[in-house]
Amino acid sequence: MGKPYRPKDHYFQKAKAEGFRARSAFKLEELAKRFQLLRPGSRVLDLGAAPGGFLQVIAQAVGAAGLAVGVDVVPLRPFAEAWVKTAVLDVLAPDALAVLEQLAPGAFDAVLSDLAPKTSGIRSSDEARSLRLAERALEVSRTRGKVGSSFLVKLFMGGDFEAFRAELRRDYQQVKVVRPEATRSASVEVYLVGLGLKAPGGPG
User: Fold this and answer.
1) Model confidence over 89-104: pLDDT tens digits?
2) Domain count of the fold of the chain
3) What is the largest CA-CA distance in the chain?
4) Quick check: helix, strand or coil at residue 193?
5) Among this protein's residues, is 154 annotated catalytic?
6) Which of 71, 104, 105, 187 is the most exposed place for a label (fewest CB within 10 A)?
7) Does some domain include residue 73?
């Protein structure tokens, strides 16, 4: 058994103290620093952006010369920065890619996904839903990422984890599996990082 969920643990309090909308901001800070995911002037897409913890980190990192785009099935509280765009979008919807293209035409330097299903408590079902969201995020990253771009995706550990990691390895030069320090101790989530999107039809 993992440790019980404590909604107001250290990272919750730290996020509140530092003005972040969610503890997830610390996960991205760690991962971005380790893998150079965010650079000034970059164009970055954040899938599953609510309540906006990732977007706060992205906006600060890319600056006014960059673009931070965040989408979620629920509205996000507005951002003061003019280079932040948000929209209500279900990434599983058939027209999601078309809507994204209208919202922010052009390719991205990084696609980040913190998408997570509403958990049912049935592990196999939750893992399958998590995988479906991760697969969709990968499809978006393949479609909208520049050659050489980065991809970050959250996934629940489960039976199809290795198959998904193998899929990433076909598309990216390097693939890393990371559990950020700010992850809750009881959580089964990990993040996969894809570095260097390969050109379509390039060597595997």
Assistant:
1) 999 999 999 999 999 9
2) 1
3) 47
4) strand
5) yes
6) 105
7) yes
Q: Which of 161, 20, 136, 11 is nearest to 73 (CA)?
A: 136
Q: Which residue from 101, 45, 95, 106 is spatially nearest to 72, judged by alpha carbons?
A: 45
Q: How many helices (H) and strands (E) does the chain have?
A: 6, 7
DSSP label at residue 22 = S
Q: Are 151 and 194 in contact (CB under 8 A)?
A: yes
Distance, in Å, from the CA atom of 197 to the CA atom of 190, rounded to the nearest integer, reads 20
Q: What domain range is 91 assigned to? A: 10-197
**Residue 4 forms part of a structural domain:** no
Neighbours of 79 (CB within 10 A): 17
* Residue 165 resides in a domain: yes
Options 8, 146, 154, 176, the catalytic residue: 154
CATH number for 187: 3.40.50.150
Instruction: Look up residue 182 and give its DSSP letter.
Output: T
SS3 of 89-150:
CCCCCCCHHHHHHHHCCCCEEEEEECCCCCCCCCHHHHHHHHHHHHHHHHHHHHHHEEEEEE
- What angle do the packed helices 24-35 and 53-62 form, to 10 degrees? 40
Q: What are phi and psi of 91, to 5 degrees?
A: -65, -20
Whole-angstrom distance, CA of residue 133 vs CA of residue 160: 13
Residue 1 lies in a domain: no
